[in-house]
């Protein structure tokens, strides 16, 4: 495994992290979830991502990680999405952040969260209130670092500016979607803003939910036992299952094979070639997927291969950003 600094912070995260959305606590059995988390840890993954909005995931991840020394892994969770029907049961007010941090600590079974992330931007709460709440949680030792997820370049710039004015601890990370098909962070200046402000990118859905493994093939039925085959989990992945996308993944699989790699390894190496990325957060329903994906760490893509990848990707029409 290789480790990178999380933006300007001194925290080191594994180049590949493991997340728990649509898997642990939900579609994946507890036994399989534990096997995945154990395999990840045993292979050097130290960065584990969850959220208060992934049903049951904090409990499963926190409980599986109890087997290991607390200092040996980086536990990340999130706050923003509704936890109840009330007006204060969502968002980034001081009240909701403080209450949800306590709730997450209990569900995770830990005394502190390494990285506490604002799952989305809250236009209904003053940024200074949000940033002060995060700073106070750091002063209390309940969280060690704070980050954001799917914030725009302008939102990151505003938060960083206010944080400096108020002399608060800086945000250290942004968690956007990023994969070969979903690249708004390149076009809308998010990568540039993160570099400027020293936020590390911990990108999610790097395999486009499994589409960038090549297992969904043009003209073939959806394989059983996959995220796309399950009506509880296929709400978002369905948007990828277009003929042009699947033709493209078939061509990318051939290009990956010519480099001696599987498409999942190739897709992760394509992301990790960029130094601003601190970690690519994969999901996994089976331990063997993690073992396969981690071979991406040692895969180097030449400029010629990157150019040929762009040529193939240019045949796919635009995706709307998933925010
Ligand atoms: N901040 C946010 O708003 C946000 C949003 C979404 C996700 N996330 C985070 O990012 C994490 C990863 O997202 P994701 O699950 O969409 O990531 P992903 O890595 O793009 O997709 C993961 C899924 O692809 C399939 N897969 C992975 N490796 C495979 C392999 N080698 N061969 C075949 N299939 C393979 C598995 O699904 P099946 O086996 O079930 O087909 C797996 O669950 C989440 O768990 C969460 O922590 C954050």
Written overview of the protein:
This protein is of the alpha/beta class. 37% of the residues lie in helices and 14% in strands. It has a single domain (3-313), classed as NADP-dependent oxidoreductase domain (TIM Barrel, Alpha-Beta Barrel), CATH 3.20.20. The strands form two sheets. It has an eight-stranded parallel beta barrel with strand order 3-4-5-6-7-8-9-10, surrounded by five helices. Strands 1-2 form a two-stranded antiparallel sheet. The mean pLDDT is 96. NADP nicotinamide-adenine-dinucleotide phosphate binds next to strand 10 and helix 10.
Write the layout of secondary structure elements.
Blueprint: E1 3-5, E2 12-14, E3 16-19, H1 30-42, E4 47-49, H2 57-65, E5 74-79, H3 94-108, E6 113-118, H4 127-139, E7 143-148, H5 153-165, E8 173-174, H6 184-187, H7 190-197, E9 200-204, H8 243-258, H9 263-272, E10 277-282, H10 287-293, H11 303-313
Parallel strand pairs: 3-4, 3-10, 4-5, 5-6, 6-7, 7-8, 8-9, 9-10
Antiparallel strand pairs: 1-2
Helix pairs in contact: 1-2, 1-10, 3-4, 4-5, 5-7, 8-11
The structure holds NADP nicotinamide-adenine-dinucleotide phosphate.
């Amino acid at each position: 495994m290789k480790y990178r600094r999380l933006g300007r912070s001194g925290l080191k995260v594994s180049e590949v992290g493991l997340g728990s959305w649509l898997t642990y606590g939900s579609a994946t059995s507890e036994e399989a979830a534990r096997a995945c988390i154990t395999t990840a840890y045993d292979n050097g993954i130290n960065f584990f991502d969850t959220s208060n909005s992934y049903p049951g995931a904090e409990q499963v991840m926190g409980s599986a990680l109890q087997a290991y020394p607390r200092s040996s892994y980086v536990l990340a969770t999130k706050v923003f999405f509704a936890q109840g029907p009330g007006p204060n049961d969502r968002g980034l007010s001081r009240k909701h952040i403080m209450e949800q941090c306590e709730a997450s600590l209990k569900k995770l079974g830990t005394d502190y969260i390494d990285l506490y992330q604002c799952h989305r931007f809250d236009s209904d709460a003053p940024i200074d209130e949000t940033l002060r709440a995060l700073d106070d949680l750091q002063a209390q030792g309940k969280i060690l670092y704070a980050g954001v997820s799917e914030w725009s370049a302008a939102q990151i710039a505003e938060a960083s500016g206010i944080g400096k004015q108020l002399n608060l601890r800086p945000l250290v990370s942004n968690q956007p979607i990023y994969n070969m098909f979903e690249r708004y962070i390149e076009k809308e200046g998010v990568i540039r803003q993160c570099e400027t402000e020293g936020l590390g990118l911990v990108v999610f859905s790097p395999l486009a939910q499994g589409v960038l493994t090549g297992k969904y093939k043009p003209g073939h039925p959806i394989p059983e036992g996959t995220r796309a085959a399950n009506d509880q989990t296929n709400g978002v992945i369905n948007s990828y299952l277009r003929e042009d996308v699947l033709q493209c993944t078939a061509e990318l699989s051939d290009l990956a094979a010519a480099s001696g790699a599987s498409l999942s390894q190739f897709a992760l190496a394509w992301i990790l070639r960029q130094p601003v990325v601190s970690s690519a957060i994969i999901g996994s329903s089976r331990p063997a997927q993690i073992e396969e994906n981690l071979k991406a760490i040692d895969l180097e893509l030449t400029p010629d291969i990157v150019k040929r990848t762009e040529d193939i990707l240019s045949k796919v029409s635009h995706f709307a950003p998933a925010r």
